[in-house]
Amino acid sequence: MGFMGGSGNPSAIAFGLTGSPTDADSTATLPDLWTPAFADRPDQTMNYVSIHDNLDLYDKITYSGATGGATGTAGRIDRLAVGTVLTSQGVPVIAEGDEFLRSKVVNGDYDTAKNSYNAPDSVNAIHWGDKVTNASVFTYYRDAIALRRATAALRLTTWSAIHNQLTTQVDGSTVIARISSDPGAPATPDTIVVANPTTTAYTATLPSGTWTKVLNSSGATSATDTSCDPQSVTVFTRT
């Protein structure tokens, strides 16, 4: 699972959080069509960690060896993954059922789950009872979506806003984004996002002012400490 499993390239995650902007504000054809810096506007990039092809998110996580269901390591990685998507600039995409740990693996058969376009309902059916079993994961998705909708800094709309109002930092494996929703005060962030893929807590350094922790590994919260849970996305807003 790369970064979500505590490895991978945190610098690539940091760039993804910015919405993959081009180096210059231009709609000219890019010389390299495979460059990660391809978006002239944030809405030109679609961010996801699973889609209709290949394994769904929870099956990717368990295929990589994580266990424990909604309350264990697998559930934490799932929430870290979607939390990263929902705090990135651009258009978030969530595959059906990921919000309650949908699985297409039957009797350990990951091969069929990887490419299940012609598999029977026993593989492809959505089991709605999983929404009850994994209610804590569903709650996290709901809270993270609500936070995104309520937080203008997580939905910047122009190339100039991305370049002027957002900065990122990599600290070891942890990625920090500092974002201002106010073009009149681009260097004064009102939202801090911390993506911590490690198995230990991370202490965030926040700018001066009064800040509230509004999202942690469980979902919506309201706290004044600066601790960021392991394997989680933490969001702070200026109050």
Quick description:
By secondary structure, this protein is an alpha+beta fold.
Order of helices and strands: HEHHEHHHHHEEEEEEEE
Number of E-state strands: 10
Quick one: overall form? Answer: globular
Identify low-pLDDT runs. Answer: none
Radius of gyration: 18 Å
Sequence of strands across the biggest β-sheet = 3-4-5-10-7-8
Strand content: 15-25%
Structural class: alpha+beta
- Characterize the main sheet: 6 strands, antiparallel
Number of helices: 8
Tally of individual domains = 2
Helix content: 25-40%
Give the end-to-end Cα distance, rounded to a whole number of Å: 35 Å
Mean pLDDT over the full residue set: 95
Overview of this structure, please?
27% of the residues lie in helices and 18% in strands. It has 239 residues and is of the alpha+beta class. A hairpin with a 2-residue loop joins strand 3 and strand 4.
